[in-house]
Write the structure tokens for this entry.
Amino acid sequence: MSNTNYTGAVATAREYYNSDDADRFYHTVWGGEDIHVGLYESDEEPIADASRRTVAHMADLLGELTPEHRILDLGAGYGGTARYLAQTFGCPVVALNLSEVENERDREMNKAVNLDHLIEVLDASFEEVPYPDNHFDVVWSQDSFLHSGDREKVIHEAARVLKPGGVLIFTDPMQTDDCPEGVLQPILDRIHLETLGSPGFYRRTTKEAGLEEIGFEDHSHQLPRHYGRVLEETKSREDSLEGIISREYIERMKQGLQHWVNGGNNGYLAWGIFRFRKA
């Protein structure tokens, strides 16, 4: 385990994603490759296919990537994005992630497909990125910023390490700008957070950090669709998960997924692809 002194929400997230139950759930049920929200073409589509579509579409939005582009993935999970980018475009990627358990799986998968020479897997927090200013052409993140208790700092760190002209591209489960107070408390309690970001929050914070918005693709309808799909998969595989993942964890996960589905279907949640450029 890393000796980094994680605190607050980041420490809570690290402890959770390092747990045996979480690792086994995300590796088996969620796909173990791209553990983020998918872009679904149908409600029956495999989670892995929809999740990979998100990665491919985000890469398309960046234009023509080349081996000269340096990319930083903040909150890289099992590193599916880094492998896609390295294999497809030949560009070097730093996969920064706080879970040492996920990172070990990531390194093993990179070696298995002979991409470890292009991908550096880094045990670290996105609140303190251990790279100098103006270092990366692209900073990328998928559904990770919500786990920070100081999202302003995360955005400023992303802006700091971007080269002038570089692009920050990310997704994050958010509350809507007009979300009524208190309605998302079941979600916040489940993930041990006080708040979620919002589109307005990210627009203000990126502007303060010296970033200019390029665009926002609103795919908010995909958020409850995705969590509903994961919930369905969890229920259908419940018997086969017996003895692999604790019953208590599965029950909590089902409740948590349903809270996300309810929040999205009630119009209180937002999700999409943000792009910003550093001046």
In short: Residues 216 and 274 are 5 Å apart (CA to CA). The first strand starts at residue 71 and ends at 74. The two ends are 38 Å apart (CA to CA).
